[in-house]
Design brief:
By secondary structure, this protein is α/β, with parallel strands linked by helices. The chain has four domains: 3-165 and 217-287, Alpha-Beta Barrel (TIM Barrel); 173-215 and 506-610, no CATH class; 311-382, Elongation Factor Tu (Ef-tu), domain 3 (Beta Barrel), CATH 2.40.30; 399-493, no CATH class. The chain is 24% helix and 28% strand. The chain has 13 helices and 30 strands. The strands form five sheets. It has an eight-stranded parallel beta barrel, surrounded by five helices. The protein is globular and about 100 Å long.
């Protein structure tokens, strides 16, 4: 049996989603009109409908994210939104709030958001048993842990392969709400993890000042696709519903090539969608926004994963400074362009950026001369040449078809069949007219029936049978247009849409007592957990009147390990007197380390001036 593999790309809006599909995505995910975990990426209904129509032509999927926790007053409105999403033809609904399962939902497949903290076989088996069709795994999982989940379940598994990383377990971060009132679980995270912090030890000594201690590099698992496939991953997700079209085009095209290469070299696998994407550039994720790359914990704990010196994009290294002059510097980088953005780190590890105003031979004139020293490594974080390419039509997607043309009696027949077996045929009456030059007449038929212009089809094979006559060009174009229009209609009619119905049951939830980490914000969620044998002893963090002393972040990332002070693994003798604290000049946090499970907790202490 052939297994389908899906490249899943982000769609901040319909146009970006369409671009993602044209550049090789098998599916896209987009925010619902309301209640999306990226509130500023909500999309109007008519735009979602436009995206769905484009996607379904290529048998690509569209998943709509309604993945926030809801108040009691919002439940009814959320149900109306879900029904509307289903009526549009969406292929799946990404949710976080289990209270929605207590409603009379339409038969749309449910996808468990990574915000549900999906990290154990027991949790994922439960989600499968209560009716979810797919689960988005926690980013922190290793290949070994994913394999254990696959062995215990049959549900579709989706994992992130590229993009920004939340330092906390998703759905378990409350820092933003604690200090700004903006909740990540409500779609308005203030990204406190990208702020600078100072670190002090138990004696009050400052260890580090104004460093981005909780900011991680970006995920890049491009070289790990075979390993992920072997563990049972079916959908490979690119993060980035806040990213612009150029980023989505570039990263999607890059991963699409990797998946194509895998499918070509491994029998038994195919891409989920149809068609072939043709791009007009060489994709390279390092050329668009990135904070440096990490494989995170895919192979276990090993590499350093923080981007402590900056939360901004650094791009890729392009060369070094070889000399300095008045208003310019020299570099060994040979392919710089006017308008490129460059950056470098000072000796104090501060990131300095500038734009290239002009280039004269090896001389680079920046728009501001904060001169890098000789030998400084330069990074290009804005590639003007690539950006110009990506701001145009940089890719298109074609559906391969086979055509069969024949003329018998006074009937001219043209049939077309696509790669999915869909077939269309049109017949037109025309009296046979013997051509003056039969060879030239055949060439004309081939030329005008094979040229598909701006249609989404590409003729891969054209068979001409029977007599070959003379046909006006307008006739050939008309019959071709008619058969392709009919094939388009047939494709939409035969789109393999999946349905799924929730049947409530009493399968036990893996945990019996649930505190605020369960994110229960409405009575429907409370009833859901009660029906599954669990007691909600504390409501969602967002409803608590007192948050001081609460854990606002739980993470597999460990600051001790990052600073070579891990008591279990580090070979250095570096040790810090605990308790350690971090602060941003306004609020203070206590760090707790569970060395048995290799986890770090961040405890909110409140205002530093207290």
């Amino acid at each position: 049996m052939t297994q389908s593999l899906e490249l899943l790309a982000p769609a901040g809006n319909a146009d970006i989603g369409i671009a993602a599909i044209d550049h090789g995505a098998d599916a896209v995910y987009i925010g619902a009109p309301q209640f999306s975990a990226r509130a500023n990426a909500a999309v109007e209904t008519r735009e979602i409908a436009r995206l769905i129509r484009h996607a379904h032509l290529y048998y690509a999927g569209v998943y709509v994210a309604l993945n926030t926790i809801l108040t009691d007053k919002e439940i009814a409105e959320a149900l109306n939104v879900i029904r509307e999403i289903h009526d549009l033809g969406a292929d799946g609904l990404i949710i976080q709030d289990p209270g929605l399962l207590e409603l009379d939902l339409p038969p749309i497949p449910l996808i468990a958001s990574t915000q549900m903290h999906n990290d154990t076989p027991e949790k994922i088996r439960f989600l499968e048993d209560v009716g979810f069709k797919r689960v988005i795994l926690a980013r922190e999982l290793s290949l070994e842990e994913i394999d254990a989940i696959r062995q215990a379940t049959r549900i579709e598994l989706e994992c992130f392969v590229h993009g920004a990383l939340c330092v906390s377990y998703s759905g378990q971060c409350y820092m933003s709400h604690a200090v700004t009132g903006r909740s990540g679980n409500r779609g308005v995270c203030a990204q406190c993890c990208r702020s600078p912090y100072s670190l002090t030890d138990g004696d009050g000594n400052r260890i580090l000042s104004e460093k981005f201690l909780l900011s991680l590099k970006d995920l890049n698992l491009m070289n790990d696709i075979p390993g992920l496939v072997s563990t049972g991953i079916a959908s490979f997700k690119i993060e980035g519903r806040y990213k612009e079209a150029d980023y989505v085009k570039n990263v999607t095209a890059a991963y699409s090539r990797v998946l194509d290469d895998f499918v070509r070299s491994h029998s038994g696998y195919r891409r989920r969608s149809s068609g072939r994407s043709e791009v007009l550039f060489s994709p390279d994720p390092a050329k668009t926004f990135n904070r440096g790359f990490t494989r995170y914990f895919l192979l276990g704990r090993g590499e350093k994963i923080a981007s402590m010196d900056t939360p901004k994009s650094i791009g890729r290294p392009v060369g070094t400074v070889t000399g300095l002059g008045k208003g310019f510097f020299r570099t060994d980088c040979s392919d710089l362009k006017n308008g490129d953005g460059l950056c470098f780190f000072t000796k104090e590890k501060k990131l300095i950026g500038f734009r290239v105003e002009r280039i004269e031979n090896s001389k680079v004139f920046p728009n501001t001369m904060k001169a890098p020293a000789k030998g400084t490594l330069l990074y290009r974080n804005h590639d003007i040449a690539l950006t110009r390419l990506l701001n145009k039509i940089s890719g298109r997607r074609r559906l391969p078809v086979e055509m069969d043309f024949s003329h018998e009696d006074d009937d001219v027949r043209l049939a077309a069949m696509d790669e999915d077996g869909n077939r269309a045929e049109v017949t037109s009456r025309m009296t046979f007219e013997e051509p003056n030059n039969p060879s030239r007449a055949r060439e004309q038929i081939e030329k005008h029936l094979s040229g598909t212009g701006n249609t989404p089809f590409r003729v891969m094979e054209l068979k001409i049978s029977g007599r070959v006559g003379f046909y006006p060009i307008s006739f050939l174009n008309s019959i071709k247009r008619s058969v392709l229009d009919e094939l388009t209609r047939v494709r939409f009619e035969s789109y393999p849409r999946k349905i799924a119905a929730i049947r409530p049951n009493g399968i036990p939830y893996p945990e019996k007592r649930l505190d605020y980490h369960a994110n229960v914000m409405n009575e429907h969620a409370r009833r859901f957990y009660q029906r599954h044998g669990s007691e909600v002893v504390e409501p969602a963090f967002e409803t608590l009147s007192e948050t001081t002393g609460k854990e606002v972040m739980r993470t597999k990332y460990c600051l001790l390990y990052e600073l070579d002070a891990c008591p279990k693994i580090s070979r250095s003798n570096r040790r810090f007197r605990e308790p350690l604290r971090i602060g941003d000049g306004r609020n203070s946090y206590l760090l707790k380390f569970d060395c048995d499970t290799c986890h770090m907790s961040v405890i909110f202490l409140g205002n530093e001036s207290r």
